[in-house]
Each structure stands twice: as structure tokens, then as C-alpha cells.
Amino acid sequence: MTKTDLLIVGAGCAGLTAAVYAIRAGHSAIVLEKGMYGGQIALTSEVENYPSIEKISGVELATLIYNQAVKQGADIRFEEVTEARLGAVEKIVVTTSEEYRARAVILANGVERRKLGCPGEAEFTGRGVSYCATCDGAFFRGKDVAVVGGGNTALEDALFLSNLCRKVYLIHRRDQFRGEKVMVDAVLARDNIEILYQHTVEEILGDKVVTSVRAAGLEDGQRTLDVAAVFVAIGLIPVNQLFAEAGLDANGYLAAGEDCNTQLPGVYAAGDTRSKPLRQIITAASDGAVAAVAASNYLNAQ
């Protein structure tokens, strides 16, 4: 059994930022990460929208944040959480290797991107397959790209990319969109957006990078589109079942506002895992700082 002032679940931007702020406030902090540090940043080939850094690879930025947290004194452990009991004053989190007891917990476990599951998707992730148009769209300025999805995110991505790219193919498996009417109308009004209703992606093709996507239509059969990128916008999957006692919204995200407070005293949610309108590196960093300061104030009051 290991005890600490603050336990942080997740070593993405939010969790690592929280660790930096917590340690600078004088608290011990352990960060638990089941996979690779960096979270969604590591899936981004290049980042150009983080303040003060003109251009950097996602992996490099994640490594810089990780190294900063380590140098500040964060104890980062690569273990998967299997159980959490967060309702009492002393919070208990169990992993595949250890049982942890903490006075406060920050949940920064992120989300999983819903995948297409087609051939080529995993192979070209970060090399033309992207799950964030606002992160990566500028790299394909003047080129033809495809967006897959039919909700607000897909519609927003198509509109965003239509301002940068020569042509945007919007591939949707249904015969109508699930997004808001105002968004649908805006997409329909764009001359450089071509909609492929009732189409599914069968395969993403390329060499070192994406060169085309093969889509199948219910009525017109198979079609190959020459594109430089495929932006997948078919939803996010929050993985918060273990933390349900902290309170979830209707979509499974942790129900916490801009103050990052959950319904449990001493338990905070930061980054993509919580209910929020924008999921970006900069907002994850902001959440990490806010949650850590809130946790510090809570700890100091005990």
C-alpha cells in the first residue's frame, strides 16, 4: 500500500500539468498511466496551436511536458487502474500492481477516439489519419481530404477544413445528418464540400502517408477518393465506468464544470474526461492547473 497527498489518474496534458502545479504547491503527487504518456497529443503528428511554440511534433510536446513533471518531482507510474473507491475521506485506488490511498484525487484519464476499424486506419494514424481537424487541418492546406461522420463534430470539421483545403469529402453512413440544422445548412452551402450519403469507409490506402480512401455506397457501389488525409469524427468514448460514483453526464463524461469539481469532496476531473465544449491541448492544460489548485486548497483545509 502506498500513500500520497494527491493521486492523479492519467498522464496526458491535464494530468501532467496537474502534477506540476500540485508539487509546486508543496504536495506529494503520484500519477498513474495505463499506456503511453501524452494522451491524445501523441496521436497528433504536429502541433502549431500551442502558445509560444510555433511548430512541434505531438510526441515531442508530450515528452517536454512529461520531462517537466518528472523534474518537478512527479512520481509517474505506468499501471492500469482496476478499482476506485472515492467516496470516503481517504480515497482508495487499486491498480494491477498496487493499492494507493490518497487524500485527494484528480481524474484526468482522457477519452478514447472511436475508431472506424477498417484496414489502413491504424497504419496511417498520424500520417494522414487524424481524429482532430483543428489540430491537424492546417497541414493539408490546399489539398483534398475526407471527413467521416454525421454529427456536429463531423460537420464542424468539414466546415473548418473547407476554409483550408481544396475539397472536402464528407462521408456519412446514413441518408441524413444527426447534427444541428444550422450546421447542416452551412455544410450544404459550401461549394467545396461533397457529401457522400449512405457510404462507409472500407479501406484507407497509401504508402508512407495516406493517398486515398475506398468508400462503399449503398446505391453506387465502391468508390476510391484521392485524398491526402482522412479525419475521423465518429465520436469519443469516455472510459469512466470505474469512476461513476463521482457523477457522470448523459454521455458518460465526468460531470464537472470549469472549476473541475465533481460531486465527491476531494475528487476533481480534468481534461477530455469531463463535460466540456472544447477538447484541446490548451484546455487540458488549463483544467490540470485549475484542478490542482482546487485540490491543493482542499488538502490545505483538512
From TrEMBL:
Coiled coil: none
PROSITE patterns registered for this protein in UniProt: PYRIDINE_REDOX_2
Pfam families tied to this protein: Pyr_redox_2
GO molecular function: oxidoreductase activity, acting on a sulfur group of donors, NAD(P) as acceptor
Domain of life: Bacteria
Keywords noted in UniProt: Disulfide bond, FAD, Flavoprotein, Oxidoreductase, Redox-active center
FAD/NAD(P)-binding domain boundaries: 5-288
Keyword Flavoprotein appears in the UniProt entry: yes
InterPro entries to which the protein is assigned, alphabetical: FAD/NAD-bd_sf (IPR036188), FAD/NAD-binding_dom (IPR023753), Ferredoxin-NADP_redctase_2 (IPR050097), Pyr_nucl-diS_OxRdtase_2_AS (IPR008255)
Family annotation (SUPFAM superfamilies): FAD/NAD(P)-binding domain
Protein name: FAD-dependent oxidoreductase
Taxonomic source organism: Ligaoa zhengdingensis
